[in-house]
Design a protein that fits this description.
Elements (H helix, E strand, L loop, with lengths): L8 H12 L63 E4 L2 E7 L5 E9 L14 E7 L6 E11 L2 E11 L4 E5 L5 E9 L4 E8 L5 E6 L10 E7 L16 E11 L3 E2 L7 E8 L6 E5 L8 E5 L4
Parallel strand pairs: 1-14
Antiparallel strand pairs: 2-11, 2-14, 3-8, 3-12, 4-5, 4-11, 5-6, 6-7, 8-9, 9-10, 12-13, 12-16, 14-15, 15-16
Length: 299
């Protein structure tokens, strides 16, 4: 998701139960040991890795860490034994498997509060989407929670990368949201849907692929540090914590949560571009369908 310059009640109830039950216990450490030298080729996003900062080449292969800048890599899916990825802009989970085309992804979540006194001028975004994992397209929809100086701003948006992001309607912190992306084979269109259950506002769009091809090679649920229109990753706003529930991922033949025997599940951890210390981190998956992401102060 790039910033602009100038479902259902049952799903929300399930999310409330998960959050209240403490399924998203915050990680005990905000930092991890010094990164090891990568042992193999590193995968960088050849536009994009994730809507908002896809041009920033921000992801490393599973199980690998980098001490310095990430060099250009070979497009494709990560293939190391450990399904863990460091990213300069994403945190959350992605599902992918070579040769698998995903049809849908859906999640429920709350609009997080951002502390704009602690992180003025910073931005954050929560979304669901198809593609983006080493592909040249992303079909995504969600909400932004950021800071115009020290003033918070919240809104729903969608993006069919490489086309520009579209802001659709304002939202408020604490509001219950459902978001989904679904591919319709007969019409060759992607149906993007975001609903603010708290206010009753909803947007639904049926759109064609904005790139040469949209292979639907991955599905993801992500908290992100967005980018400017020029592709520069913006400072990540202090959103404290975000929680996702009722996550559903589907192909033509199978439907499950993020974890399934039919695809691999990648845990994505956000790290600083210079420090490579953790700046946002997902919790463990709860029953394969729920998790939290947590903001850590950059050091």
């Amino acid at each position: 998701m790039r910033t602009l310059e100038r479902g259902c009640a049952a799903a929300v109830a399930a999310l409330s139960v998960v959050l209240t039950a403490g399924a998203f216990t915050a990680p005990r450490a905000a930092a991890r040991p010094a990164p090891a030298t990568p042992r193999g080729p590193m995968l960088a996003a050849p536009r994009p890795w994730a809507g908002a900062a896809r041009r920033a080449a921000g992801l490393l292969p599973p199980g690998q860490r980098s001490r310095g800048a990430v060099p250009p890599g070979q497009p494709g899916l990560p293939g190391a034994a450990r399904d863990a990825i460091d990213s300069y802009n994403w945190a959350g989970y992605a599902a992918a498997r070579t040769g698998t085309a995903f049809r849908s992804v859906r999640a429920a979540f709350f609009v997080p509060y951002v502390d704009c006194h602690a992180t003025p001028g910073a931005s954050s975004s929560d979304w669901v989407g198809l593609d983006g994992l080493g592909s040249a397209s992303v079909e995504q929809i969600g909400v932004a929670a950021g800071c115009a100086g020290s003033r918070p701003q919240y809104y729903a948006w969608y993006e069919m990368y490489p086309k520009t992001v579209r802001r659709v309607f304002p939202v408020h912190p604490g509001n219950a949201i459902t978001a989904s992306v679904r591919f319709q084979p007969g019409r060759r269109k992607f149906v993007l849907n975001v609903r603010d259950i708290s206010s009753g506002r909803q947007l639904r769009r049926a759109l064609r692929c904005a790139a040469q091809t949209c292979g639907r090679s991955s599905a993801e649920v992500i908290s992100e540090a967005p980018s400017s229109a020029a592709g520069k990753i913006l400072p990540l706003a202090d959103y404290r914590a975000a929680g996702f529930s009722a996550v559903a991922v589907g192909t033509a033949r199978h439907r499950s949560g993020l974890r399934s025997r039919w695809w691999r599940t990648y845990r994505v951890v956000g790290v600083g571009r210079i420090s490579h210390q953790v700046i946002q981190q997902p919790s463990a998956l709860y029953q394969g369908r729920a998790f939290g992401t947590y903001w850590f102060r950059a050091r």
